[in-house]
Prior knowledge:
By secondary structure, chain A is an alpha+beta fold. Helix content of chain A is 19%, strand content 24%. Chain A has a single domain, classed as Ubiquitin-like (UB roll).
Amino acid sequence: MRVNLSSHFRSYTAGKPAVQATGATLDEALRDLDRQFPGLRFRLVDEQDRVRRHVKVFVNATPVEALATPVVASDELHILGALSGG
Amino acid sequence: MVRATTKAVAKTKAAPAAKAGKGAKGPVTVIVGTRKGAFLLKSDAPRRTWTQSAPILLGHVVYHVILDPRDRKTLLMASTTGHMGPTVYRSTDRGRTWKEASKPPAFPKAPEGETGRAVDHVFWLTPGHASEPGVWFSGTSPQGLFRSADGGDTWEGVAGFNAHPTKDTWTGGPKDMTPDGGKMHSILIDPRDKRHMYIGMSGGGVFESTDYGADWKPLNKGCEGFGPEPKEYGHDPHDVKLHPLMPDRLYQQNHCGIYRMDRPTGEWVRVGRAMPKKVGDIGFPIVVHPRDPDVAWVFPMDGGSVWPRTSPDAKPASYGTRDAGASWARLDGGLPAKHAYWTVKRQAMCCDAHDPVGLYLGTTSGQVWASRNEGAKWTCIANHLPHVYSVTVAGF
Lengths: 86, 396
């Protein structure tokens, strides 16, 4: 599936705004991303498997938090920096 | 808050042997960690002219950057960003290139149905004992102690603290911590014995281990505390220092004053009582002279009324003692004489090893100041930086 990343996370993807990942759940897709781009998962998901407070994940147009969320190859993931900071 | 009574300040003298040694020479690099990245300030040999680097990891929140004194080329950086989770960056070429730790500090995954802790940010870094190259310790928020045995690339929790059955009692709840979470800091290793360690916690207090972190005991007797009945825990040391040549001497800048402890006594003495009353003895950092255990510096802030945490009367000044806290002298030459509403965070003041010692501090308003003569005269060496969190010195 296609994974779109906001600028915050592209230091891990050599600047690419979109990459490919595989998996049957959001968790599996994120673990596949981490295999390709080591370290990325921990910046997105904490050690208790919670999506970090200022990270937003969408499956297609639906915001999701649960890593067990099912995904299919035709889905599109969007991983964005949430509104925060100053 | 109820203030407990304190003992009179005892004037002590350091052992003559502890004052031995000559000062370093040559250029220094001041490593500045800020809310928006890190910067290197490099001096010429006399420490008169300074050159500022381009920002390192611009936009990343940098809490602490430390040079490994054992190899003098590895730097570790405690970092996070506004969006991403916490990590540690490593440089093995004195700051030219940086690589993220492959396993940053993280708490264990909680069993199903339980709420586990997650590291919000790595706040403090300490190189391990001289006999253990590659060993580092880190302190996190929420308060956790972590150890790396491979130069900061992978980290494991120190279970003796992180899973200590009394930890939650010591650290208290959200009202006992700093607003953005409790902080583990001031991880000190006794140079005579790697098994002897201290930690500082905001909040919690100072704790001591004599078995390499397997168990911990509070070390806060004598500190004025919060609440109607001060306890052995629940204190707020802002910065704790151990003198490297006289490791039985500890200094502490606490939320409630400046203290000194000379072991084997286990009681803090409020040497800040000797500070001018109009200035007080509240602040974040405390710095010890590299060769003279009787010499230390602080940078007071306003801890009155609603705690503005700016310089008292908007007139910034360092204060120095040359008699282990029995007396303090104002050191404000060159600093703004009025209308300066900034302060200096706990990691943001340090010294070099020259003779006379150079002092360095970074401000919440984005300036870095240096003194070539132990605080007598200050010069601004960097301006318009982001809010400064950390200032450390490297001898390169």
